[in-house]
Amino acid sequence: MAPRFSLGTLLVGLLAGLGACCGSTACDCQDAHADAFYLQFSLDSAATGQGFRAAELDTIQLIRRTISEKVPRRADTVQVVRSRQALAAPLLLERTTPFPARDTLQTTDYTYSLLLPKANPAQRYELTDVVIDGGFEADGCCTCYQNRKKSLRVDGQPYDVVDPAANNGAVPIKLVRK
Predict the structure, then answer these.
(1) Nearest to 107 by CA among 158, 62, 171
(2) Residue 113 CB-half CA count within 13 A
(3) pTM recorded for the entire structure
(4) Which residues are within 8 A (CB) of 163 and not within 5 positions of it... i.e. 6 or more apart?
(5) Cα dist. 141→27, 71, 101, 135 in Å?
(6) May I ask which residue range the UniProt record assigns to the signal sequence (predicted)?
(7) What is each CA distance from 112 to 16, 53, 76, 78, 149, in whole angstroms?
(8) How confident is the model at residue 3 (pLDDT cuts 50, 70, 90)?
(9) Cis omega before residue 100 (within 30°)?
């Protein structure tokens, strides 16, 4: 007597085979900081005079103010103290960095003031009109988050910082002395 295969057995076999294919594929989405804004300070340059000295960048103050109607208006302040080795690295601004996450608010629910109190003269930058739009996109066995739009204004100047290679890479916003 010949063995009988049911449709259910065939379906289970196909799903197991597909699962084994996708299960053996590692997804490297690189989307952990997809919604982050990278603020890069121009370091001292005698040629332009627009850079900052190390001592001016070791302490940064950030103030965020709610613009969302979801919660009452309020302001939070953080002070970021950076080591000399970290001064060349960009400052990340996202939902949980450097501020703690509050409620269900997102980065787009705030405006931000960035202050360099040790700069001479002290410097202040206003970050407004924060827009982040993205979604999950599937490519075979991997589903990764991808930004479609990521922008803000610094002192009224617009910056579009979506990675042109579509890899959610860092696109730093260069801040220079005013």
Answers:
(1) 62
(2) 12
(3) 0.82
(4) 147, 169, 170, 171
(5) 8, 39, 31, 16
(6) 1-26
(7) 50, 23, 10, 11, 19
(8) low
(9) no
